[in-house]
C-alpha cells in the first residue's frame, strides 16, 4: 500500500518562552510595497479588545497548504521552521506531509496545521483532496528557476478551486534565495512582486538553507490568519450585546486617544 501520508516526528512543543512562536504584535510584511495588507501596521484595536474580554475565545487550528512545482523547496521551508534543520539531498514528497505548530498570539493558543503537498504531477489528484478548507495558501517557487514562477498562477487557481466559499490568505514565496547573485535576486524579486500583485498575494523571498526570513514568514502567516479568525468571531457576534459592547468600548477608546 503506498504510504501517502508521511507523518514526521511531532514538532517540539511551543512554550510561552519560545520567541519564534510567541507574538505580541503583528509582524511586518516582507516588503510594504508587496502586500495587500499594507495598511495594517498592528493588530486592529477591536481584535485586541475582543481578546481581553473575560470569556476566553477558542480557535480552531488554521489549515495552511503549501503548493508549487516539484523540488522548489516546500518541504525545506517547513523543516527549517519546525525543526531548524536543512537537508541538501532531495526526497520527493509522496502525496502530502503534515506538521502542526503551536503559537501563542496575544496570550491565546493558535495552531497552524501545515499541509506540504507533493509538486509531482502524478500526485496531484491526491494532493487536491487536501486543499479543501484551507485558510492560507502558500504558493512556492524556486528563485533560481523562472519557470517555477510562471507556474504559480496555475497552482493558485487549482488550490482556489477547492476553496470556493471564502478566499484564503495567499502568500507567494520565493525559495533558495541563497543561490542567486545580488543582481539576479533583485531581478527575480521585481518579477515576482508583479506576479504577487496580480494574484493579490503577499510576497516573501526566503532561504531554507541559510534560514533567511523563514521564521518571519511563518510568524506573519500565523498572525494574519489569527487576526482574521478573531475578526470572523466578531462578525458572527454582530448584533449581540457583547459585540455592541465591544464596538462601543473600542470607539470610546479610539476617540479618547484622539482627544487626549
Ligand atoms: N540551496 C538551497 N537549496 C534548497 C533550498 N530549499 C530547498 N533546497 C533543495 O531543493 C531540493 C528540493 O527541496 P524540497 O523541499 O524537497 O522541495 P519540494 O518542493 O518539497 O519538492 P516536492 O516534494 O517534489 O514537491 C532539495 O535538494 C533541497 O535541499 C534553499 O533554500 N537553498
From TrEMBL:
Species assigned in the record: Drosophila persimilis (Fruit fly)
Cited PANTHER family: RAS-RELATED PROTEIN RAB
Taxonomy, superkingdom: Eukaryota
Full protein name: Ras-related protein Rab-36
Any GO molecular function: G protein activity
Cited Pfam families: Ras
SMART domains given in the database record: RAB (SM00175), RAN (SM00176), RAS (SM00173), RHO (SM00174)
Gene3D superfamilies tied to this protein: P-loop containing nucleotide triphosphate hydrolases
Stated family: Belongs to the small GTPase superfamily. Rab family.
Compartments, as annotated in UniProt: Golgi apparatus membrane
Cofactor entry: Mg(2+)
Taxon lineage: Eukaryota, Metazoa, Ecdysozoa, Arthropoda, Hexapoda
Record field: catalytic activity: GTP + H2O = GDP + phosphate + H(+)
Entry EC number(s): 3.6.5.2
Membrane-related topology note: Lipid-anchor
Gene: Dper\GL12421
Key word Isomerase present: no
GO biological process: protein transport
Role noted for this protein: The small GTPases Rab are key regulators of intracellular membrane trafficking, from the formation of transport vesicles to their fusion with membranes. Rabs cycle between an inactive GDP-bound form and an active GTP-bound form that is able to recruit to membranes different sets of downstream effectors directly responsible for vesicle formation, movement, tethering and fusion.
GO cellular component: Golgi membrane; synapse
Keyword set, alphabetical order: Golgi apparatus, GTP-binding, Hydrolase, Lipoprotein, Magnesium, Membrane, Metal-binding, Nucleotide-binding, Prenylation, Protein transport, Transport
Amino acid at each position: 500500500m503506498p504510504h501517502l501520508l508521511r507523518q514526521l516526528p511531532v514538532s517540539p512543543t511551543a512554550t510561552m518562552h519560545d520567541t519564534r512562536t510567541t507574538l505580541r504584535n503583528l509582524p511586518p510584511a516582507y516588503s510594504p510595497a508587496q502586500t495587500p495588507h499594507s495598511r495594517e501596521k498592528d493588530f486592529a484595536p477591536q481584535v485586541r479588545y475582543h481578546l481581553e474580554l473575560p470569556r476566553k475565545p477558542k480557535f480552531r487550528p488554521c489549515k495552511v497548504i503549501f503548493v508549487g512545482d516539484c523540488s522548489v523547496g516546500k518541504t525545506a521551508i517547513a523543516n527549517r521552521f519546525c525543526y531548524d534543520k536543512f537537508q541538501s539531498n532531495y526526497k520527493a514528497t509522496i502525496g502530502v506531509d503534515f506538521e502542526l505548530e503551536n503559537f501563542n498570539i496575544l496570550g491565546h493558543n493558535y495552531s497552524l496545521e501545515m499541509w506540504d503537498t507533493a509538486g509531482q504531477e502524478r500526485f496531484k489528484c491526491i494532493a487536491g483532496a487536501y486543499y479543501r478548507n484551507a485558510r492560507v495558501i502558500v504558493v512556492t517557487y524556486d528563485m533560481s528557476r523562472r519557470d517555477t514562477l510562471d507556474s504559480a498562477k496555475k497552482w493558485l487557481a487549482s488550490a482556489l478551486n477547492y476553496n470556493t466559499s471564502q478566499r484564503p490568505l495567499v502568500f507567494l514565496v520565493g525559495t533558495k534565495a541563497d543561490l542567486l547573485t545580488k543582481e539576479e535576486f533583485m531581478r527575480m524579486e521585481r518579477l515576482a512582486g508583479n506576479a504577487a500583485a496580480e494574484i493579490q498575494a503577499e510576497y516573501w523571498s526566503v532561504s531554507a538553507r541559510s534560514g533567511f526570513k523563514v521564521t518571519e514568514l511563518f510568524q506573519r502567516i500565523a498572525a494574519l490568519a489569527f487576526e482574521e479568525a478573531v475578526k470572523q468571531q466578531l462578525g458572527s457576534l454582530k448584533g449581540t450585546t457583547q459585540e455592541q459592547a465591544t464596538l462601543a468600548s473600542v470607539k470610546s477608546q479610539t476617540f479618547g486617544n484622539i482627544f487626549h
